[in-house]
Design goal:
Blueprint lengths: L13 H31 L6 H24 L5 H9 L3 H19 L8 H11 L2 H11 L6
């Protein structure tokens, strides 16, 4: 027997789009600090690592800084332990897709692991747009936000 889904999903909720955009922006802020900062650090110090190793470290650092930022934001609402646990429970799918999109744009525009002023806005747009529909779905369907 197949189950019939009686509940239809609504992609037209303005309030949920606005809240998911806010949540996605907080994630983007945290992720981009670690990601762009790591790439820039390797660039200005001319550290001879392979491009994909730098990008992998940048993605890891981006996720880490996002968790740190979220913990800092949540400390205003709860104790440190709860804030850290909540921050670590954020959607890794959202953060990984955001990081991957930003690094793909960097790679395609500069050859990878290079930060140039012209590429930053493109990286940020890709990093925002990629997880935003997922964050909407997660918020609408499950009542869970990525961040903030």
């Amino acid at each position: 027997m197949s189950k019939v889904i009686s509940e239809s999903f609504d992609w037209k909720c303005r309030e949920t789009w606005l809240q998911s955009a806010k949540n996605t922006m907080w994630c983007l802020l945290g992720c981009s600090i670690g990601d762009i900062g790591t790439i820039y650090y390797f660039q200005i110090n001319t550290i001879p690592w392979p491009t994909f190793s730098i990008m992998a470290l940048a993605m890891f650092n981006g996720i880490l800084t996002s968790i740190i930022l979220e913990t800092f934001i949540l400390i205003k609402q709860m104790n440190f332990g709860s804030a850290l646990k909540t921050a670590c429970g954020m959607s890794l799918i959202s953060m990984i897709s955001m990081e991957l999109a930003m690094n793909i744009v960097d790679y395609l525009a500069t050859g990878g692991a290079r930060i140039e002023l012209f590429v930053i806005p493109m990286m940020l747009v890709a990093g925002f747009v990629t997880p935003w529909p997922y964050n909407y779905w997660r918020l609408k369907k499950k009542g869970l936000g990525c961040c903030g």
